[in-house]
Amino acid sequence: MPVRVDDVMRLCCDLSLHQQMKAAVKHSGRGAFVAGATAFMGGLVGGPPGIAVGGAVGGLLGCWMTSGQFRPLPQIILEMPPQQQQQLYDSIMTIIGRLDWTDAAQLTALVMGNAVLQQKVAAALVTYITQELRAEVQYGE
């Protein structure tokens, strides 16, 4: 991967670490499958009332399975395939493209030293994570 992409990924990791960002990729398909499967099993065991009970239990189980799976955003960024990292790089470069830097440390210092730039990069990062990865972003511990 080119050095500049690595620098921008390091910036995204440092910025998300600084702002204590976490993300959870939603697994709504898995939750829906569990709800449907328990409704079906309930129907086999208890007939029409079993469908209602199985659906309710499955819905709660599916909701529980898909919630609270937050991971630190730097971990998610580093695990993204090169194609997704390139897309994120392109998005961030629309903001920082005019900056001149020699390495990731200098780039991070330039962005972290400018509150407006830091806010714009953070917003672009959150937008990418929520729209492209379909993840929910959370701040803090």
Q: What would your notes on this structure say?
A:
- This protein is mainly α and 141 residues long.
- 73% of the residues lie in helices and 9% in strands.
- It is built from 6 helices and 3 strands; from the N terminus they run αβαβααααβ.
- It has helices at 3-18, 28-66, 73-79, 82-96, 104-112, 115-131; strands at residues 21-25, 71-72, 135-139.
- It has a 3-stranded antiparallel sheet.
- α1 packs across α5 (104-112).
- It is elongated, with a radius of gyration of 21 Å.
- It starts with a helix and ends with a strand.
- The mean pLDDT is 86.
Instruction: Summarize model confidence as the mean pLDDT.
Output: 86
The oligomeric status of these chains comes to: single chain
Number of helices: 6
Based on CA atoms alone, the radius of gyration comes out at 21 Å
Strand proportion, as a percent range, falls in: 5-15%
Cα end-to-end separation: 32 Å
- How can the largest sheet be summarized? 3 strands, antiparallel
Estimated structural class: mainly alpha
